[in-house]
UniProtKB/TrEMBL annotation:
GO terms for biological process: inorganic cation transmembrane transport. The keyword Membrane applies. It comes from Iningainema tapete BLCC-T55. Pfam families: PhaG_MnhG_YufB. GO terms for molecular function: antiporter activity. This is Monovalent cation/H(+) antiporter subunit G.
């Protein structure tokens, strides 16, 4: 049962990666596209790390550290890109 849940989390993470990449083909601004990509990559990577945590519970300190790092750094990057892509940021 744990293996099925683990592979499901990894599969959902890969779907998020491809779903975020598909937004690059839209007609929105470059910064909006990068923001969408960073959010999808964060969710996908965290889902994959959680799947690996279920698969290899002996490595939980490293995997928890990876999940926390992804949550902090990718969220900050996503907020910066969102701010720059809004009308409030004059970085074009």
């Amino acid at each position: 049962m744990i293996n099925i849940l683990s592979y499901t989390c990894i599969g959902v993470g890969i779907v998020f990666w491809f779903w975020g990449t598909s937004h690059l083909l839209g007609k929105r601004s470059l910064l909006f596209k990068l923001h969408s990509l960073s959010v999808a990559d964060t969710l996908g990577s965290m889902s994959i790390m959680f799947g690996m945590l279920l698969m290899i519970p002996s490595k939980w300190p490293l995997l928890i550290l990876a999940i926390i790092s992804l949550a902090i750094w990718n969220t900050v990057l996503g907020y910066v890109l969102a701010y720059c892509s809004s009308s409030g940021g004059n970085y074009e």
